[in-house]
Amino acid sequence: MSQRTRPYRSVLYIPGSKERALEKAKTLPVDAIIFDLEDAVAPAEKENARATLANALETGDYGPRMRIVRINDLSTEWGLADAAAVKNMQADAVLLPKVNSAADVQALADIVGDMPIWAMMETARGMLKALEIAEHPSLQGFVMGTNDLAKELQSRFRPDRLPMQAGLGLCLLAAKAEGVIIVDGVYNAFKDDDGLQFECEQGRDMGMDGKTIIHPAQIAVTNVAFAPSEAEIDLSRRQIEAFEQAEKEGTGVAVVDGKIVENLHVVTAREILAKADAIAAIND
Predict the structure, then answer these.
(1) What confidence score (pLDDT) does residue 284 get?
(2) Considering only CA atoms, which of 248, 161, 174 is closest in space to residue 207?
(3) How many CA atoms does the CB half-sphere of 61 hold within 13 Å?
(4) Phi then psi for 2, rounded to 5 degrees?
(5) Rounded to whole angstroms, how far apart are CA atoms 200 and 84?
(6) Ramachandran region, residue 257 (left: φ > 0; alpha: ψ -120 to 50; beta: rest)
(7) In the prediction, which pLDDT does 181 show?
């Protein structure tokens, strides 16, 4: 399964210190889990959280869910120990907060070796260095940290996220240029399904691969928003069929619903069907 077709619809933050939450996560229909050693863990619990999480990943079956561990910033008193510990955990990737440059990614790569690295994109400097960060050979994914970005920008909340658009756009461009996964920031009002729906659709339409979430109540809305719809699946099948028929007949022109279908549309259609198949396999 390629990076572009693997589902990342819902990416749930789970505290790395909470055994009950770690156990419950095994049953939740999310595509990826961020096991958090940073914001969700109190300073006094940091050391115990590493051991608790290592044991959960070693003994627990998280199925097809991607396992990402967010460590503390390497400049903190816990960061280096986190990085050394996660290298030996049964995780798929390590997530580094407050990435400002490729040098930050390299500093972590020097510790974790070949483990894929994801970057929290949550600072103004990080936005301006997005392409440099995405180009790092160890970098596999971006996670938008919109709460921290809003704090740094001193911006106000707006449903349309207008203050965020420059940063979101820069990271999207960098991610798509380098084939890096990019998942949107969290929606804080976890009981507001309408607001979550709007923000999911905005992120999806921009090109985000999925969305980070903070509560299981947000899973259903997020999974639906970032999955191919039945209409998209139907159109994709008809585009592929029409294009292949046109090639077979040598006409060179395929038309579906009054619109020309070119090879670029077929590439997108095949990706949509591959993602739909991957989601179906997860749900089986």
Answers:
(1) 67
(2) 174
(3) 2
(4) -80, 165
(5) 35
(6) left
(7) 98
